[in-house]
Amino acid sequence: MIRLHNTLSGKSEEFKPLQANEVTLYTCGPTVYNYAHIGNFRTFVFEDLLRRFLELKGFKVKHVMNITDVDDKTITGAAKEKKTLQEYTAFYTQAFLEDMKTLNMLSPTLQPHATDSIPDMIALIDQLIKKSIAYQAEDKSIYYRVSKFERYGSLSKKKLDGNIAGARVAVDEYEKEEGADFVLWKAAKEGEPSWDSPWGKGRPGWHIECSAMCMRHLGETIDIHAGGEDLVFPHHENEIAQSEAATGKPFVNYWLHAKHLLVNNEKMSKSKGNFFTLRDLLAKGYDPMAIRYTLLSVHYRHSLNFTLESLKEAREIIEKLDNCFWACVSRLGRTSYPACDPTYWQNMICGPAFDEMTKWMGDDLNVSAVFAEFFEIVTEINKNLDKMDEQGLKACIEFFKTADRLFGFDIAFLESIPRDVVKKLKQYSDARKEKNFAGSDALRKEIEKLGWLVKDGRPGEPSTVKKIRRTWDIKK
Ligand code: AMP
Ligand code: ZN
Question: To test the ligand 1 pocket, which listed residue (43, 66, 301) has its Cβ within 8 A of the most ligand atoms?
């Protein structure tokens, strides 16, 4: 069973998708006016974990993540840099796609750009006008009449009471104007990009973009819609109002929101200037998978206070996982193994551990319990490496591969060590046995040149190798 905390009900609910084996998932993508910061990536990586988990449970996930390439921020940014909106946003879209890869996020099934979906937005606004829910104001822009939608406020639990009738808000982002009519289509302003519409030239408001792209690609009712907690109001509240008023159907069955990444207990944000981009951290020598681990290490509904110190701890964890995986792989291909029940590691350790991990994941992605179980097994594997038979080692390697599918830490990215490295490692071990340290040193360097790091075992234990690809390996 999978339980997810639904912001709409405020409760943990059993997850029942519309189709037995399929999940429709919409995640609000980046606004491409700058590099995404790691606060943004906390939300995106949480969504990636959710998707990976659903796939591991056997669902086919249709995942749509939009690219917001027209809104107040992108237009202001492009004007400042004297670029066209397209030139300006294409650069940051590309950077975002690269950052996603660096963090080993799965590619969404579809990544529609808002500017490619304008006819869908116009059609949706048209429906709302026909139903007298949207209207054109004196400024020629089209607004959504919030008082026409009874359930307005049901997601954010905001009340319409006390708001001035006819109050309007023309900007994409706002916090306090709970009951104000919000903009769907902004009449063109001098020098700003605009598109033709039945109401004259203009451009869409941010909220209508997601409603239109979500319904176009996933249908009028979808299973899961996710984002960061700041999107609950007004963005998602407005998405519900627009979509449900147009179709008369529920828009989303499960709303999931990630709490913010904080710095000194304040939200990491561009406007506060307290942010790191992924690139900032890579330039400081931090490893992408250590960053990924840090972002995932705290349950998504708890705030996560970011420190550089936490990245150092994460580095140790990733290094431990790497070492354990390679210790297993290095022990394969021997001529003899200790006697051991060949099914023991799969049936008694790895299989049950994975069942336990997925059980905790199914409890609203309880990562603390999942990681506790995972690390316990890694310790157990480390303790028993030299007692394992070939089947046991293979079971542990499979365990790492499945864990990778879930966490995306990219530990088990290669299944075997190239032959020339194995050969040199054997020569290296022989040289050490013969106390020929000049010879073993030379061989160590040769192995490093091939891209592998030699790790000496304790006395009596074999030396192993692991692929050099982490920042800390490369510096050594
Ligand atoms: P934006 O590019 O501003 O549209 O934001 C992209 C995603 O990042 C949205 O889901 C936001 O809710 C989320 N987000 C923004 N700041 C943070 C933060 N400090 N921590 C977690 N998520 C955030
Ligand atoms: Zn959105």
Answer: 43
